[in-house]
Amino acid sequence: MTDTKKSIHGEWSSRSAFILAATGSAVGLGNIWKFPYITGENGGGAFVMVYLLCVALIGIPIMIAETMLGRRGRENPVHTMQVLSVEAGADNNWRYLGWLGMVAGLLILSYYSVIAGWASAYVFKAFSGSFFAADVTAIEQLFRDFIGSPMQLIFWHTLFMAATLLIVARGVGNGLEKSVRFLMPALFVLLALLLIYAMTTSGYFQGIHFLFSLDFSKLSGNAILIAMGQAFFSLGLGMGCVMVYGAYLPKDISIAKASILIAAVDTLVALLAGIIIFPIVFTHGLNPGSGPGLIFETLPIAFGTMTGGWLFGVLFFVILVFAALSSAIALIEPTVAWLVESRGMSRERACLQSGLVTWLLGFVTIFSFNVWADFKIFGLTLFDLLDYVTANLMLPIGGLAIAVFAGWKMKRQHSEQELGLPNPHYQIWQFLIKYIAPAAVFLVFLDVVGVL
Ligand code: TRP
Fold it and tell me: Into how many domains does the chain fold?
């Protein structure tokens, strides 16, 4: 690759623009909606511990590797892998990694958009005062009635998909960059306010205890896989999102520093969400393992009772929708980039086609909460199954392949040049990406299959 090669979609205007966009991709429903509910379902502290270990030992090294591959290839994931495997003298089949990523991205977006639609609907519920002075039963009923109505879910899913596509159609600088700039600071301010509220509840210490006390008897092999899948999901790894964002990254930016910063912010937001949700759960005697509705059944209670709750409730759900938008645009970007680069489509057309497929797929998730709620495979609803297969299987497999390629296939001089790390740091990354990350993913898979 020449040093001057650039992506045809443009480049980030600065280091902070890349960091903002990558953080926007990382921070989303995964942190605020998914992390609390799967932590609740999987028993708390020990699960959180495994999650944190996965972020540090697997997530960060793979994030560095995926960004690096993207910047060196400078194209959509399929092409980037093709170009890089030629450069490395490796097999041409590595391009299937790009394919796997695109499919995973669209599948994930199909349910992501449905849940983001819930958050959008809750903006209006908050606005209309539905949470005001409502008790726990009323809040639960509100949520149940809502997800029980396919028409409502379809409406909000459609609206969210349309917003995502509008932003993506406008391209890197205009759409993606601008929408993230004010989001992160605003999110932190609101989380800080909610944290103060959580600290005043009677269940605060019980919540903290649930989140951080290590009881390994609650940890199954499957829970370890879910924790690892969550590390991938939350950082947005393993499917080419980070790769396409890396493709828009100027040469002179340190990939390692940026990755560590992004992972730190992402993890902080997830932990904050947990520290806010679980005290509310225990204060009101709710069930931490109640599933995907957890934040929609807990936070409204807080907004309904706290001073200024009306305003904070509206703001919170607005920000959650924006955080979801900045992740959704990342999920669809690899496919759009591929359609534009390889199929010669206009960006608008590419958005329309991939968006249509994703929108239709979203109906599976929508119906799994109502008309198909009793239809289960392996004891999982269709939504749970879709989430399991994408987050816990496809993403780690994609991540494993990225680690193997970056650690074993790519020429050392190329990764050294691309990362520009001083030596002990480069060696640590090499060690993690060659041995630790692949071995860890592999062992978790074995554990789940029951071989261990
Ligand atoms: N990380 C985002 C979240 O936590 C979702 C997301 C963006 C994602 N890009 C991804 C998930 C790539 C998996 C793969 O909400």
Answer: 1
